[in-house]
Amino acid sequence: MLSMFFWAFVIGGLICVIGQLLFDVAKLTPGHTLSLLVVIGAVLGGFGWYEPLIDFAGAGATIPITSFGNSLVFGALQEARLHGLVGVLTGMFEVTSSGISAAIIFGFLGALLFRPKG
């Protein structure tokens, strides 16, 4: 059980270190860094390498933004098998819609409940 927490921390931390290096060393903007991490997750998911990482690291691989790219590709491939080319588009939205909806709803509720200090 303790090793599961350890590896989640290490893998999640490594993903964050990669993002920080892209931001600091490569001088990428936050938007470019975010987009690149999503693309990296999508490419790893497309090759089937992200699922074994999730099995190994658990939340260390599912929480970072790379998991969003993996989810997009996973949904697209799954629905493409069932519905062809149309499934590529609908699959991406179907798999990620609950997370995006939750982010919008909780962001809105947070904006209603709290005042910014700016």
TrEMBL record:
Membrane-spanning parts: 6-26, 33-50, 84-114
Keyword Protein biosynthesis: no
Key words, A-Z: Membrane, Transmembrane, Transmembrane helix
Organism taxonomic ancestry: Bacteria, Bacillati, Bacillota, Bacilli, Bacillales
Organism superkingdom: Bacteria
Name the record gives this protein: Stage V sporulation protein AE
